[in-house]
Amino acid sequence: MLAFGLGGCLFGFLADRGVIPRGSWNMKTRILVSLGGGLYILLVGGPILDTSSLVWMMGSLTPESALAVYAAGAPFNAVHGLATFATIALVGNAILDKLARLRTKYGMME
């Protein structure tokens, strides 16, 4: 939950600052945001999840156990990052449209 909440906060902060535009994205923006999301999962979100696994699964924390957990998680993190990239690239605008509709329906800040 920490990893995904942190990602939501980061990308929300970037949208608030105008780095990521609100509303529908053109192809270039969609690809850039998709790359950002995939890289976030690969480099930040996945290792946070792996750290959680390391703490909960290992009886004693050693450099060898840390290397084993992070190495075992790397392929999953790569696939997860690729899936994140594909999801944002393929349905990012549809999700943004639904979120905009909900903001309007419930009178949330634009």
Description:
The protein is built from three helices and no strands. The longest helix has 43 residues, at 63-105. By secondary structure, it is mostly helical. The model has no long low-confidence stretch (mean pLDDT 92).
Oligomer: single chain
The backbone outline, from C-alpha atoms, is elongated
Order of H and E elements: HHH
Mean pLDDT: 92
| Cα-based radius of gyration, to the nearest Å | 17 Å
β-strand percent reads under 5%
Separation of the first and last Cα atoms: 26 Å
In the predicted model, the low-confidence regions spanning at least 5 consecutive residues are none
Helix count equals: 3
In short:
This protein is mainly α and 110 residues long. It contains three helices and no strands.
